[in-house]
Amino acid sequence: SQKLALDYLGIPCESTQCEIDKYAVNAYNQIHGETENLGDICKVDETKLSYYDLITYSFPCIDVSCAGLQKGLNKDSGTRSSLLWECERIIKAVKPKYLLMENVKNLVGKQHKHNFIAWLDTLDALGYNNYWQVLNAKDYGVPQNRERVFVVSIRKDIQQGYTFPEK
């Protein structure tokens, strides 16, 4: 949970979620307290959103995970993983300073990397410098072997350059 990491770092934040799974909403609220839920991201009116300095996002990994169905995440494909592309209009409308994305390692695997690169190109066109790396939770004090792709995007008018933390 990105919000939990920000809390641990002492960075105050308010969170909003886009989630349709009632169990996921309940779990999030149990950890973070009652949190505004905008529901289905496909139905969010981006013109009515508040400004956020940071947007953290992920998307269902079922269609890109090695353990999943491998249906992919092509734009407008209707797969659950293609919900990534809904983030584009949110980011375009809000234009936050920073973005943080996390998802499974196979997102940069041979079968899906073209969509990952297309996503980075989209963010670049929206005015972001993007930095990505595969990180393993075990290298950062978490007792599990869990590799994930992280993308840090910084609005081009804010900063050039980002370095991921050392193991």
What does this structure look like?
Helix 2 links the parallel strand 1 and strand 2. 16% of the residues are buried. The mean pLDDT is 91. This protein is an alpha/beta fold. The chain is 24% helix and 20% strand. It starts with a helix and ends in a 12-residue tail after the last strand. It is built from four helices and six strands; from the N terminus they run H-E-H-E-E-H-E-H-E-E. It is globular and about 40 Å long.
Terminal-residue CA separation: 19 Å
Uncertain runs are none
Note the run of SSEs as H and E.
Answer: HEHEEHEHEE
Rg calculated over all Cα atoms = 16 Å
Give the arrangement of secondary structure elements.
Layout (H helix, E strand, L loop, with lengths): L1 H7 L7 E2 L4 H11 L3 E2 L16 E4 L28 H9 L3 E7 L8 H13 L2 E9 L10 E9 L12
Parallel strand pairs: 1-2, 3-4
Antiparallel strand pairs: 4-6, 5-6
Describe the structure concisely.
The protein is an alpha/beta fold and 167 residues long. The protein has four helices and six strands; from the N terminus they run αβαββαβαββ.
Which terms would index this structure?
single chain, 167 residues, alpha/beta, 4-stranded mixed sheet, two-stranded parallel sheet, 6 strands, 24% helix
